[in-house]
Design goal:
Number of helices: 0
Helix content: under 10%
Distance between the termini: 50 Å
Radius of gyration: 18 Å
Largest sheet: 4 strands, antiparallel
Shape: elongated
Strand order of the largest sheet: 2-1-3-4
């Protein structure tokens, strides 16, 4: 699994292959290269931590690295002109406000 945390330690994503019903089968020995792609995860500007973990077929923890690396999300030029709340959330979302009819 791949996890993404904000710097306060809040887990934002737990992208686990078991949830997709696609457990990975790795060789018993030697290094393994695994490519992991998350589509459309629009984080706000800031610094985040990426972690990885793996369990064996019996569900026993084999590897847990809470902070493999820090990644920095830069402000998108498309959104640089927008007014922003002082205490914004971590994830950008599209939304629509609908006012009631008067």
């Amino acid at each position: 699994a791949v996890t993404i945390y904000d710097l306060a330690g809040t887990k934002l994503v737990n992208a686990d292959s078991l949830r997709k019903g696609q457990p990975l089968r790795l060789q018993q020995t030697g290094p393994a290269v695994i490519r992991f792609k998350i589509q459309n995860f629009p984080l706000q500007q800031g610094i985040y931590e990426l972690g990885v973990w793996a369990v064996d077929t019996a569900g026993l923890m084999q590897m847990y690295l809470r902070s493999v690396l820090q990644l920095e999300v830069l402000e998108s030029p498309l959104h640089a002109h927008e007014l922003k709340p002082q205490d914004d959330g971590c994830v950008r979302c599209d939304f629509e406000l609908v006012a009631p009819s008067v």
